[in-house]
Specification:
Radius of gyration: 43 Å
CATH topology of the largest domain: Rossmann fold
Strand content: 5-15%
CATH architecture of the largest domain: 3-Layer(aba) Sandwich
Largest sheet: 6 strands, parallel
Number of helices: 6
Order of helices and strands: HEHEHEHEHEEH
Structural class: alpha/beta
Distance between the termini: 133 Å
Shape: globular
CATH superfamily of the largest domain: Flavodoxin domain
Number of domains: 2
Length: about 220
């Protein structure tokens, strides 16, 4: 009987150890499975939160930059007369428009040619006067022809045109002056500006009335070619 008791005790101990090992393995397996489940869930959540990247459209070329015309109509207009002719000229040539604005706009009193002390009279009497330009700068890159419009003041171009031509380079550009007036021709305005610019291929200019038609302007431009 004494021999049987130790044997029974040994069997009980072995059974207990086996049960503990099995329990430990089951717990480890459960922890591993739980960890895997959490990782899978996290990965699924991450996929949901990540925004879907837009698909590239194959065979669709990028839109081209329209750029601008090779022709520009740049003009100064104190009363709107030259502006009207410039708009017609741009229409028949397909040109871009650029208005040369005075930083200090001209008033009716400024333009009174009967007043010898008026602003415009004082400027025209001073060859070195350079009224400031108020419009934004323009790049002349890509332009091959520029029509340059202005009113005739006291037989010449307004001094603000001198400011403009001295400011930019007209290298490689054909410049065509045109003017508006009540009766005076373009005179020496073109040669004045050509000398001040120092660059560009300057053609002879022409005077137009405010009532000039687009057909007349088109005929003129075609005759310059």
């Amino acid at each position: 009987m004494k021999r049987i008791i130790p044997i029974i005790a040994a069997f009980i101990l072995v059974a207990a150890l086996t049960a503990c090992g099995s329990s430990s393995q089951n717990e480890t397996a459960n922890v591993t499975n739980a960890s895997n489940t959490q990782n899978e869930a996290a990965a699924q959540d991450a996929q949901k939160e990540t925004p879907e990247q837009p698909k590239e459209q194959s065979g669709q070329p990028a839109p081209e930059d329209p750029g601008h015309s090779e022709v520009l109509v740049a003009y100064f207009s104190a009363t709107g007369t030259t502006k009207g002719v410039a708009e017609k000229l741009a229409s028949v040539t397909g040109a871009d428009l650029y208005e040369i604005l005075a930083a200090e706009p001209y008033t009716a009193a400024d333009l009174n040619y009967n007043d010898r002390s008026s602003r415009s009279t004082a400027e025209q009497n001073d060859k070195n006067a350079r009224p400031a330009i108020g419009s934004e700068d323009i790049s002349l890159d890509g332009y091959k022809t520029i029509y340059l419009g202005f009113p005739i003041w006291w037989g010449e171009e307004p001094r603000i045109l001198d400011t403009f031509v001295e400011k930019y380079s007209f290298e490689g550009i054909t410049v065509v002056p045109f003017c508006t007036s009540g009766g005076s021709g373009i005179g020496r305005s073109g040669s004045n500006m050509e000398a001040l610019a120092g660059s560009g291929n300057w053609l002879g200019g022409k005077r137009f009335s405010s009532s000039v038609s687009e057909a007349e302007l088109k005929s003129w431009t075609e005759g310059l070619k």
